[in-house]
Amino acid sequence: MNTRSKRITLHGLHLMEYWHDHSLRYPLREVAARYPKTYQKVGNQLRELGLTSDEKSREESKSILKKQWIATLAAMPPHVQPYKDMGDTKTWAQQDWTSVFAEIEREVA
């Protein structure tokens, strides 16, 4: 299995290819923008476990959503500051992610 993420180029601009479920867009798009290599490395780790939303239907993606989030929490380096551009300098390890779990529970219900 090729675990390298494809890079999409449009009119000379490199576009990010997201591997996470749409429900995780708020915590992970900022990481993808600020730490693109780290985001892709975490995605490659999850891809090896079959826990990315790549080429999955919405229903398939929702079925792995909780596992995807738990694996992301474990794989993301603790020094990453996901919301630094918004003025929040807490690191990944310092964030309170309980609201994301609550959102996941609503999403998969």
Provide a compact summary of the structure:
By secondary structure, this protein is mainly alpha-helical. The protein contains 5 helices and 2 strands; from the N terminus they run ββααααα.
Distance between the termini: 32 Å
- Order of helical and strand elements: EEHHHHH
What number of structural domains do the residues give? 1
- Describe the global form: globular
Keywords:
disordered N terminus, mainly alpha, two-stranded antiparallel ribbon, 5 helices, 109 residues, globular
Question: Could you explain the architecture of this structure?
Answer:
- The protein is mostly helical.
- It has one domain.
- The protein has five helices and two strands, in the order ββααααα.
- Strands 1-2 form a two-stranded antiparallel sheet.
- The longest helix has 13 residues.
